[in-house]
Structures are given as structure tokens and as C-alpha cells.
Amino acid sequence: MVALAVPVVLSxxxxxxxxxxxxxMVGKLGPAAIGAVAxxxxxxxxxxxxxxxxxxxxxxxxxxxxxRKDHExxxxxxxxxxxxACIVTPPLMVLIAAASYGLARAGVTPEVAGPAGSYLRxxxxxxxxxxLYGAARRYLQGVGQVRLLTLTYVLANLLNWFGNWVLIYGxxxxxxxxxxxxxxxxxxxxISMAVGLIGLAWHYERKRGHPLFQHWARPSLLRLKQLVRLxxxxxxxxxxxxxxxxLGTFCAGLLTPxxxxxxxxxxxxxxxxxxVPLGVSAAAAVSVGHAIGAGDxxxxxxxxxxxxxxxxxxxxxxxxxxxxxxxxxxALYTTDPRVLAVGPSLLGLAAAFQIFDGIQTVSTGAxxxxxxxxxxxxxxxxxYWILGLPLGIFLCFSLHWGIYGLWIGLTxxxxxxxxxxxxxxKKDARKGALIHLN
Length: 438
Hints:
mainly alpha; 0% strand; globular
């Protein structure tokens, strides 16, 4: 489990690092620039992560096929994942482009809405590489080829950091593009990630005597339907979860630029720690899937519980760090005294929900290894959209608790979701596989 989880965790952190690098690099431009990047990413990731979520069915399908040693089926599922990525990219790009022009009308402050819209339109060009990366990565995880994923992310992040330095501030004779330069740099980094992971998949297939493009499978309507049948609920779960936090970012944008910047920084830290159980979640999905494919229900159950222990153990440590050194963590992003006054309290709330965030994330991955993707979607809908968000918005705007009220509601949502998914995993782990797909 550790051998599989560590490279995947590092890959998740590498993925998250792109947004962190963007936020830090534009930090010198002021709170409005930080807010523009935050709002742009919030709007972008809700539809784009739906596309990535559609590909999460590859975790189940590839890992089950690999567990029963059907390597040809693994290869065919990768091809269908690439086709699905190409199919969903155009409508997603149209939706993102349309959203970029509606930020000011939606109530985002003018000093944030203008640069955020421009940032979003440039970032949109990286959508297809992002989805191709998602397909290739899920395939490589499913067949246990995870070690080189970390190297790909390290190189992509170095490229993103260098591109930010050159394009935001106009270094090496280039024009100073501000937040637009950050978006352009991220697009280039995502292209490199997609090319790198597809290259790794090609190398793996070539080593086992099955050249990737020589035996490339044709589109199969049946297999695409199977992939969507598993991926659509997973995508819905991601949209519900990420959409809830992005709506929180939007609500923070209705307050003040300082509140938005503080929310963005605290959320970045919570998102960084979230990447670890998210990586363990992917490892859980693959390990449970391998065991189910091999017909070993007991090993599948052990893998899921071990992953839960690893994920929640890390989040407990993260909670301690948030409680002990909140102000220095905020100061890494900005020295603005207004942000430093509010930020530590938000990190305290983030510390309070760390363990629950770890439980719900890893439970979702373990259930996906069994083929269960609908229940996590339902749990996220009820937890965030029926309970947490309405309470948070009420506390924020009606009781005038501001950004604190918003985060209290979101914390309650995580507690409810984590408890529900943990109970569901305990029940389903006794049964074994919930699906049987070839």
C-alpha cells in the first residue's frame, strides 16, 4: 500500500502545487490579483473536474482487469478514456468561456472580475491536455506504474514556476503579463504533463511487447457507456464537493478583497493537505480493485482499512500544524496585516475538519475500488448542498458572521459526509465487488 500510495500522493501534491505556485507568484501584485487567480480557478475547476471525474471509472475498470491479469483489457480501457476526453472537451471549453464573461454580473468586485475573466479564458486552452493527462494517469495507476508519475510532476512544476517568473513580471525580455502570464504558464505545464504521461504509457506497453499505437483500440460504444456509467456518479461527486468550496470562494468574493484573499490562502493550505488523502484514496481504489479482480475479498477489505488509517493519520498531523503555527503559514503568501489578522482563525477551522476530510476522501476511493460510485455522490449532495452550504451562507450573510460563518457550515458538511461514507464502506467491504465488468 505504501509503495503504491507514496508516488500517487506526491503526484497529487505536484498537481496541487501548480495552483499554489500561481497564487504565490502573483502575490506581490496584491490582494486583487490573488483573488483573481482564486476566482478564475474556482470557476474553471468545477466543469473541468467533471471531465476528469468521468475518467475515474478507469480506476475500477483498469484495476479489475489488471487484477485478473487481462492486460489487453487494460489497454482497451485506456483508449476509451482518451476518446471520452476528446468527446467532452469541446462542450466544457464552451461552458468555461461563457462563464468568464459573467463574473462581474454575478457580483464579483470589478477589481477582481476583469483580470479573473482574462485569466480564465487563457487557462481554458489547457483543458484537453488536462483531460488527456487524467486518462493516462488513471491507466498508469491501474496497472501499478506509479513511480515515474512523480518525476513528470516535478518537471511540470519547475516549468510552471519558471514560466510564471518570466511571464508575470516580464523577465528575459518578455512582456509583463500579470495574472495572464500565470495562466499561460499553467497551460504550457499541462501540455508537458499530458505528453509525459502518454509517453510513459507508450513505454510501458512497448516493454511488454504491445506497442501502444500499433494496437490502438477503436471506439466502442458499449465500453464508453460502461466507463460513463461508473464515471458519471464519480464526476457528480467531484462537482458537488469542489462546487461547494468554489461557491464558498464566490461568496467570499461578495464580501471584500481581503476576505477573499484570506479565504483563498486558507483554502490553499486545506487543499494541500487534502492532496495526501486524495492520493491515498487513489491507491485504495487501485489496491481494492486489484484484489477484487483477483477474487480476493479479504485482501480488498484489508487494503481499504489500511488506506483509511494512512490517510486519517496524516490529516491528524496536519491539524496539529495548523493549530500550532497558523500565522507563519499565512505569512508565506502575504504580509498584508489585514489578511494576517483573519487568516489564523480560518486555519483553525481547517484544522478542525482535517480528520473528517481524510476519512471521506479515502472512503470514496475504497468504495470506487468496489465499483460503488453513486453513494458518495448522494452523500456529498446531502452533506454540502442540503446541510452545510445553506447553514454557512445563513451564518455568513444573515447573521453577519462573515467568512467564519461560511467555513463553519462547510466544516459541518465534512463531518456528516465522512461519517456516512465510513459506515457505507464498513458495510460494503463485507460483500466484495459490486460490479463485474470485462
